[in-house]
Amino acid sequence: xxxxxxxxxESNEANSKWLDAHYDPMANLYTFSSCIAxxxxxxxxxxxxxxxxxGMAGHTMRLKVYxxxxxxxxxxxxxxxxxxSTFLMDQNEPRTPAVAVASGPFVYVYKNLRxxxxxxxxxxxxxxxxxxxxxxxxxxxxxxxxxxxxLEGIREKAEIPLSVRSLRFLAQDVPEMENFVNLHKxxxxxxxxxxxxxxTLKKNMADEDAxxxxxxxxxxxxxxxxxxxxxxxxxKGKKLWTxxxxxxxxxMSLLDQKSRGFQAVMVGxxxxxxxxxxxxxxxxxxxxxxxxxxxxxxxxxxEDNTLIMTTKGGGLIIKILxxxxxxxxxxxxxxxxxxxxxxxxxxxxxxxxxxxTLRERENAVAMHRVFQMDLYRLxxxxxxxxxxxxxxxxxxxxxxxxxxxxxxxxxQGIGPTFKLTLHIQNTSAGRPSINLLxxxxxxxxxxxxxxxxxxxxxxxxxxxxxIETFVECLSDKGISDVIKVFVLREGQSMPLLxxxxxxxxxxxxxxx
Length: 512
Description:
The chain is an alpha+beta fold. Among the domains are: 128-184, no CATH class; 351-391; 405-502, Immunoglobulins (Immunoglobulin-like). It contains seven helices and 28 strands. It has helices at 2-15, 128-138, 144-157, 164-170, 174-184, 351-362, 364-391; strands at 18-24, 36-39, 48-53, 62-67, 70-76, 83-87, 98-103, 106-111, 114-120, 195-202, 212-218, 223-226, 233-235, 249-257, 262-269, 273-278, 281-287, 292-300, 303-311, 316-321, 405-412, 417-426, 436-441, 447-449, 453-455, 464-473, 482-489, 497-502. A four-stranded antiparallel β-sheet has the order 1-20-19-18, with no helix packed on it. Strands 2-3-4-5 form a four-stranded antiparallel β-sheet, with no helix packed on it. α2 runs antiparallel to α3. The longest helix is centred in the last third of the chain and has 28 residues, at 364-391. The chain is elongated, with a radius of gyration of 42 Å.
């Protein structure tokens, strides 16, 4: 068994695109993908691993820096980190990046791993109704129970959410409400959001060592772009597809292989597997010793393509992408065909299209009514034509259940003599059709027929009866006309079936 297990492990490693460089299950790292970054902190060409450690399992929150497989330095963080990014703030030499640590509503900036600047998110606008209610409580115009009822009403209908103070007040028990109001009623209402994610964006140039701006995503669904020099706010997507995963998602990060221009998304799952997706396609699967909670890919040390992962148990995993590794463009998993992953070449929206879209939005109700009216009119015209065809027996299929018949005609020849074959069939379940007559109506100046009126044979159900006759064209002017065929019952003037035969143009008259 041991030999078989060893053979299987060697086979998996040989088929993998990654080299196992280091695994330390006792590294005591508790973090997420948003809290790890790779950067050349000292400008010596050797990239370090920067980790915002959450400080679980009895450890304090720290900013740790790894060099190789060992811990190079660490410093204490003031609050729980939510994101860590490294960026160049200026053009000064040496070109060493700063480290930004997001925590709550603050961004702590470190230069040379020492505190340098603290940025605070601007406060949000408070709900004016909430402010009025607390102002009444401040003037002792309402009691705590009335304050609670009014705040609950505001929370249900207002577009602007309540502040943290009001939410905490609503969570209080009735005996504690009065003390809470007396303690906080003199303070102004404030709404403060927190940072949920953070990244960087090149400011002026796309070079690797260009100055970058911090891009901050907040809990209030805002995106802020910060000037790296003055730390002021410079400014204010669409879902393309969805991929269903085999296990709950724990973390995700970007794999950017710059040497080959290859980009993919790495997703850590709860079943100890890391999936790599290129657009919608699964291009690689990595199995790990523990559940991965953070992923980071990039240059580490002097190796360009290094994959660093931390695990749920605090472990550290380092892998190096093989130089011979090639990721297939197609999906390696079972599923829909690759053609569904190809983006359609949708043409750009023209000005005419935009104008028509605006017109449809403004006149949607009127246009819908016109469409419905035209649709009803079309249905009415079709119903009237169908009823007329049934009443005048203009259809090649009978509408009566007493004589269920159908007929079609075939014309053969190039003229001046044509062979006309009628195929008549009785479609009833078991009753034959008898006493039927066949009559032709045509322009006698153009055509002549030897049998223009005759009696049809008895039609047995289910059999096809071909009835043949000959038509002679009398004109040499290259014109043609319609010959009408009627199937009648003896003693009745209303035909059971009617067929219109468009005769072809004759190529000449018969020799005299």
